[in-house]
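Supplementary Methods, section 5.1.

A reviewer requested that the exact input to the structure prediction be made available. We therefore reproduce it here, unchanged from the version used in the analyses.
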Amino acid sequence: MSATLPDETVQLVALSATGQLETPDDYAFDCAAHIGSQLFNVPLCVLILAGVEQDWTNSCVSLEVHETSIINWLCDQVVDTGEPIVVEDVLTDARFARNRYAIQRSRIRFYAGYPIRAASGVVLGALCLINFEPMQFPSEQLRRFRELAFLTELSLFARRIGTAQNALVAKLDVARRESLVDPLLRIWNRGGITTIIDQLHKSSIGDRVPFSILMIDIDRFKRMALPV
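The structure derived from this sequence is encoded token-by-token as follows.
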């Protein structure tokens, strides 16, 4: 399932920054789905993120195609408004009268959705609770739902920090590599050669293989004129 977003480009960029598009599997999101199901006593808790094929769900509940469409449509309302939506009985809720026929074909009777945002405030998706019978959802439950959504957002923030940190490490590796290369000849300088030797030496000790160094010195090397 995948929610349709009003400004897809902005949301995909924000989601990409979390690293979630590249690595869809996440144990933290699986935990959020399981906790949501148990905490609110519903058979299905689903986390839907834009642009990600996989949904994180607590259950293997078999859903019909039209039921999946209804969940997508309900999540679209959460994403579009940026506000939580609670529907204690979809069959009697006047807000969804125009979709009454599709809803009547579905087993879904209760729906609660909470927007999942990036640090910038962009809505990335929705955390959803599904029940196949009507149920009440008092303000105390909504507060707990908000807290679970907040913890889910923290998982996304943590992933974004990890992504940024990995990019920084890669950048430092490049900078360090540049410091070990002669800027004119683009070959290893003294520091680079020393680093390589140290690594080879450590590997030889670990592998218990011989290690030798051959050093060649040329007298008056600086006096040698290089051909133009």
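Confidence is low (pLDDT under 50) at residues 1-6, 8-24. These observations are discussed further in the main text.
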